[in-house]
């Protein structure tokens, strides 16, 4: 319980896909003058040093953001995301990887608000330190993000983007994300939701997209990116997926342009593939 630390995985292929989509969704909401809230149920530390012992132990960023860092042929949405990573590395050397809250902060306006939930004590300390100068715009809570959603939705401006990305270390997380989204849609049906999940050989991971499609969401997109063939022994994450509820109307076309490129650039073997499917009224 509470052993997961994202520092071991920061900047990997899953972060590339998740944060690219997060940036696109936040930018779309910011096009209207009215404020909105960004709510993160598992915020982590907010920023990660890629030369730390944790990050270098697995070096997953090398096959994620590391493969994009020096390329000149980035599709527009990928370039937008990479430019924000470059903002964290002004000397041009890839040493820092921003977490989801940082990407959100850099795409929001001054009158928007961030509500960040994190239950891991060490991560909460780092999260508060990373956002100590943000005054009232950012509120960090040491709390179970699933439980916190009940009190945060609907947000006062009646506009919001909710990121749900637990580590799935516990089997019950698969059940909790479904229940959390179901309850959230009852409280705040007009909100935008971004739910991340790993591509694993586990039955729970395989069945999750089908369960999410059965929720009462009028508009959704299901996106996944597999970077390698699943291991014969069933071990390890071979990709990741995102289920988006109430996506921007432009997101599907953006991903149709970006996903084939990402599949080619992030592929680790011939088993690389992507999924893009959706439903709209």
Summarize the structure.
The chain is 38% helix and 19% strand.
Question: How are the elements arranged and paired?
Answer:
Blueprint: H1 13-29, E1 37-40, E2 47-49, H2 53-58, H3 65-68, H4 76-87, E3 96-98, H5 100-107, E4 113-117, H6 121-130, E5 138-141, H7 145-152, E6 160-164, H8 172-187, E7 192-199, H9 203-213, E8 220-226, E9 239-245, H10 251-266, E10 273-279
Parallel strand pairs: 1-4, 1-6, 4-5, 6-7
Antiparallel strand pairs: 2-3, 7-9, 8-9, 8-10
Helix pairs in contact: 1-4, 1-5, 7-8
Describe this structure in words.
It is a single chain. Helices cover 38% and strands 19% of the residues. It has helices at residues 13-29, 53-58, 65-68, 76-87, 100-107, 121-130, 145-152, 172-187, 203-213, 251-266; strands at 37-40, 47-49, 96-98, 113-117, 138-141, 160-164, 192-199, 220-226, 239-245, 273-279. The protein has an 8-stranded mixed β-sheet, with helices on both faces. Helix 8 (172-187) links the parallel strand 6 (160-164) and strand 7. The protein is globular and about 45 Å long.
The residue-averaged pLDDT reads 94
First-to-last CA distance: 41 Å
Q: Helical amount among residues, as a percent range? A: 25-40%
Strand-and-helix sequence, N→C?
HEEHHHEHEHEHEHEHEEHE
For the biggest sheet, the summary is:
8 strands, mixed
Proportion of strand residues: 15-25%
Shape field:
globular
How large is the radius of gyration? 17 Å
Number of DSSP E strands: 10
| Helix/sheet category | alpha/beta
Low-confidence parts: none
**Strands of the largest sheet, in order across it?**
5-4-1-6-7-9-8-10
Number of helices: 10
């Amino acid at each position: 319980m509470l052993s997961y630390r994202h520092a071991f995985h920061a900047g990997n292929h899953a972060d590339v896909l998740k944060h690219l989509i997060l940036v696109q969704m936040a930018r779309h909401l910011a096009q209207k003058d009215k404020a909105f809230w960004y709510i993160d149920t598992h915020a982590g530390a907010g920023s990660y040093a890629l030369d730390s012992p944790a990050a270098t132990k697995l070096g997953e960023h090398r096959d994620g953001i590391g493969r994009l860092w020096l390329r000149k042929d980035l599709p527009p949405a990928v370039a937008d995301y990479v430019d924000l990573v470059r903002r964290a590395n002004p000397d041009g050397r890839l040493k820092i990887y921003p977490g989801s809250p940082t990407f959100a902060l850099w795409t929001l306006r001054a009158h928007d608000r961030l509500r960040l939930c994190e239950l891991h004590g060490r991560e909460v300390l780092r999260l508060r330190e990373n956002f100590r100068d943000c005054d009232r715009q950012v509120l960090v809570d040491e709390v179970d993000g699933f439980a916190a959603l009940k009190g945060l939705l609907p947000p006062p401006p009646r506009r919001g983007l909710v990121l749900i990305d637990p580590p799935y270390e516990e089997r019950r997380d698969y059940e909790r994300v479904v229940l959390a989204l179901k309850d959230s849609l009852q409280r705040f049906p007009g909100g935008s939701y971004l739910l991340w999940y790993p591509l694993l050989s586990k039955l729970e991971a395989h069945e999750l997209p089908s369960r999410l499609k059965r929720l009462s969401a009028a508009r959704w997109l299901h996106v996944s990116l597999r970077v390698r063939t699943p291991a014969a022994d069933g071990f390890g994450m071979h990709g990741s997926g995102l289920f988006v509820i109430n996506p921007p109307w432009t997101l599907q076309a953006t991903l149709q342009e970006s996903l084939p490129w990402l599949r080619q650039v992030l592929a680790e073997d011939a088993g690389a593939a992507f999924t893009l499917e959706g439903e709209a009224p």
